Amino acid sequence: MTAAEAISILWENESINNTTLARYRKIAMRLKSILDSSGIDGIVEVIRGNRRVVVENVECDYYDFISVNSKKAHAYAGSYLIEYSWAEETNAMLDRKRAPKGEMLRIM
């Protein structure tokens, strides 16, 4: 994701300007430092200023849910980051994808 995309998600009511860009860069550098010092620096990749989570290096219930091969595909209980307005669309998608107990999960 680009810095502008991250800013619009993190601070949805703020415009993208030099102040928010500087704040984002500071947070990104701090995150990198924390991940490095924790020995888990391989979970975020930076390419030409864009950042992404390297999903192959992360254990995550969301990634487990959307994986057709996961034994945890039925783990979604009906709520996903409900505190954040930006998660509403994902929560709705997850709810639609949730298969009734005993059925296979259908992803896209």
Secondary structure blueprint with pairings:
Layout: H1 3-10, H2 18-37, E1 44-47, E2 50-53, H3 61-66, H4 88-97
Antiparallel strand pairs: 1-2
Helix pairs in contact: 1-2
Beta-strand percent range: 5-15%
- Which descriptor suits the 3D outline? globular
Report helical residue fraction.
40-55%
How far apart are the termini?
Answer: 22 Å
Order of helices and strands: HHEEHH
Q: Strands across the major sheet, in which order?
A: 1-2
Point out poorly predicted stretches: 102-108
* Number of distinct helices: 4
Radius of gyration over C-alpha positions, nearest whole angstrom: 17 Å
Return the domain count.
Answer: 2
> What is the overall pLDDT average?
79
- Strand runs, count: 2
Structural class: mainly alpha
**Largest β sheet strand count, sense and barrel closure:** 2 strands, antiparallel
Notes on the protein architecture:
The chain has helices at residues 3-10, 18-37, 61-66, 88-97, and strands spanning 44-47, 50-53. By secondary structure, the chain is mainly α. The protein folds into 2 domains: 3-57, no CATH class; 61-97, no CATH class. The chain has a two-stranded antiparallel sheet with strand order 1-2. Strand 1 and strand 2 (50-53) form a beta hairpin. Helix 1 packs across helix 2 (18-37). The longest helix has 20 residues, at 18-37. It is globular and about 40 Å long. Residues 102-108 have low confidence and may be disordered.
